[in-house]
Write a structure and sequence with these properties.
Elements (H helix, E strand, L loop, with lengths): L9 H7 L6 H15 L4 E2 L7 H5 L7 E5 L24 H14 L11 H4 L3 E5 L4 E2 L11 H15 L4 E5 H5 L10 E5 L16 H7 L8
Parallel strand pairs: 2-3, 2-5, 5-6
Antiparallel strand pairs: 1-4
Length: 220
Amino acid sequence: MSKKKIQLPQDWLEHLEPEFEKPYMLKLKAKLLEDKTNGKTIYPPGSLIFNAFFLTNLKDLKVVILGQDPYHGPGQAHGLCFSVPVGVKPPPSLQNIFKELKNDLGVSKNASDGNLESWAKQGVFLLNTTLTVCHGQAMSHKDIGWEQFTNEVISVISREKEKVIFVLWGSHAQSKIPLIDERHIIVKSPHPSPLSAHRGFFGSMPFSHVNKNLDKEIVW
């Protein structure tokens, strides 16, 4: 991830370019290269690690949904939290998100289409706090430096934008609240995972909460 290889939309790069030359990022790059050298498969593919930044420019950003790390199965991760490419069966958490969307707004989603790019293109920034993972090993790239980078991303959004809606599902996402200025809006609930969705995610109506705070509603 040298400076030559990092390409982000200019409005993100203005604020984030210095991060790519910091010691933590150089160590992160070395870790990814080490894993590849050792034959490990890393998700998402390199070209999609920063996919969320390309689909949602900082200037267009209205909403942030925070995830934790990418899906670790083949063909699932494509750089947007909770999302999977067209044709990949939505994982359980995403299925529960769609159930709540149906309950909240009456919007039904195709059971075989878990691609959330249409949300991203409307200003919903779908950010995992860890941007890569090894095949079959959830959280395998936790604490290698990504959190420092994404903490800076959250801080940039908080500093540079006005009245962004942060959708924080679960304790991990909610641990980022100290990075968010009070002028922004926080929508929070338990995580949509099957382990916790019945403890308050279902019935939390996050989508209508978001739309009532926007001048132009998101078409979920």
